Amino acid sequence: MCGGAGCASLPLTTMTFLLLRRAAPLLLTSALALTAVPGQVAAQEVPPTPEAAPPTPAPLASAPAPLASGANLRGLWIDAFGPGLKTRAQVTQTVNDAARLGVNTLFVQAIRRADCLCLKASVPAVTDPDLPAGFDPLREVTAQAHARGMRVIAWVSVTGVANTTVPNSNPAHVMRLHGPDAGANSWLARRPNGTWLEGRDAWLDAGIPAAAEYMTQAVVSLVRNYPVDGVQLDRIRYPDGEVWGYDAKTLARYRAETGRAGTPATGDPVWAAWKRQQVTNLVRRITLESKALRPDLWVSAATITYQTAPRAGDLVAFRRTRTYGDVLQDWPEWMRAGLIDLNVLMNYKRDALPEQADWFDGWNAFALSVRARPDGAQAAVAAGTAMYLNDPAVTAAQARRSVQAGMGWVGYSYRTPTADVYGQRQAAGQGLNAVQAVLSAPGMPLERPLRWTDAPPTVRGLLGRVTGTAAPGNRTVQAWQGGQVVAEALTDALGYYGFAALPPGKTEVRVSGQRWADTIPERGVVRLPDLLVRDTPPLPALPAGR
C-alpha cells in the first residue's frame, strides 16, 4: 500500500476504449504489476491517450450460488500518512464518507512503522503533533464504524518498521533499541555488505528470533486490547531485491539448522527457501496466537502481485514469480494451510496499459484457483485496487471485474481516491465524490448496500513448541489423524509449530522423536505442552581398519 514519502506523483490519462474492452467477461490471461507504493517498485509511466466519455456499465453477471466467502466484501483502506484518523472529527468524517460511499469494511492503518495509532499496543504510539494527547484513533474508528454496521480490520506493517525521513521519537521505539547501531542487538534485515536501508525504509529480519517474537506480540496486542473484526498483515515479507537476510545472527541460525557452511550466495535456492520459510513461520505464529484469543477473528494479508501472473492453478509457474523468489511470499501455501482467512491482493495495475489490465485479471484468476484447503474450506479472496493510480472509471471497471469473478473488492485509498487527488490536481472530497458516482451506478459493485457477515474459515488450530535444544528451528512436525499423516510443518526459530486447517478430533503430533496426543476442538486453538527434545550427538567414526 502507498503513503507518504514512498509515493511519487504519476501522470495518468483516461483510456475509455480499454474500459469498453474490459467491460466484457473476465479475461483469464497472465499478469502481475509493478506498483508505486512503499516497499514495492514504481509503476510504469502511462503514455498519453485521447480522452472520451466513460462507457455505460453493463449489468453485473449473476453471482455464483452460494457466494464464496468474502464475495460481499466491499472495503476501503484508511492510511495514516495524512488526515483521516488523527482527531475525533477526522474519524467522524472518515466513517461518514465511507458509509456514504457504500463500503462495509474499513482496513484501518493501526501499526504503521513499529508504532501505533492507538494507546494499548505493545509498540509505542505514533509520535505526531497532530494527535491530541490521550486520543486513541483505533478505538474511536472501531466504535464509530461498528455503530454504522461496518467491520474494522486493523492493518499492520509487520516487517517494515521505519522511514528515516519521519522517525519515531519515542525512546522505546524498536529503531532506538534494536536499530542499525545496536550491534549484536540489531534486528534489521541487511544486505551482504551490512547495509540496511531500502530507499529510506528499514525492515526487521524475520529470521532473527527476537525480532519475530516482537512482531508477533505487536499484532497480538491489538487483538487482545481492541474489538477489531480482524487484522491485516502488510509488509509480511523481505524487502525487494533478493539480497536481504545477511545479519550475522540470521546466518548463524541458517548454518545451524541446515548444516551448510559459509555465507550463501544471494541466488542460492536453499538459502531463499529457508528465508521464505521464516516468513511463513511468522504468519503461522501470528495467526495461531491471535486465534487462540479470538477464533472468530479474520486474519488477512495484503499480498504481492508483481508483473505477469501464473496461469490459474499453476503453482509451478507461481514459484518462478518475483512474489515467491524475490520478496519470499508463499501466499498460496498460506491460503491452503489456513494461515490466512482472507487474501487481499495488492493488485495495483492501470488499465491504460493493456498488459497491466491483463496482469490484473490474471492475478485475480490465479488467486481464486488456489483458495481450496484440505479440510474442505476455502480462503476468501479480494482484489485490492490502486484507486490512486487510476481515474474513477478505471477503478469502477476493475472493481466490477473483480466482483464478477466472485471476489471481494478493496480500494486504496480513502485519502487518495483518484490519480488526480494523488497528483494534487484535485481535492480529496472531489475525488471521493467522483468515485462514488461511478461505483454506485446501476450494475456497479456499490449500487446497493451489502453486509459482509461471513465467518472466517479458520476457527480452530493447534499450537505447540519444542524445547531443550540449542537449535529448535527447522524441525519437521507431523500431525497424525486416523493413523495417517494429515499435515506437516516446520518449527520456527523459537521452536513453535502449529496447524490451522485440520479437522477437529484426536490428533497426534510427532517431532524429533517425541509425540503428544490431544484433541483439536471445533472452535479454538489447543496449546500443547512443550515437548522436550534431546539431540543425540553423532557416534565417532571407527578407527581405520576396524
UniProtKB/TrEMBL annotation:
* Claim: Nucleotide-binding is one of the keywords in the record: no
In terms of domain of life, where is this protein from? Bacteria
| Record's signal peptide | 1-43
Which residues are in the Glycosyl hydrolase-like domain?
73-350
* Cited SUPFAM superfamilies: (Trans)glycosidases
Which Gene3D superfamilies does this chain map to? Glycosidases
Q: What is this protein called?
A: Family 10 glycosylhydrolase
Which Pfam families does UniProt cross-reference here?
A: GHL10
Q: Which UniProt keywords apply?
A: Signal
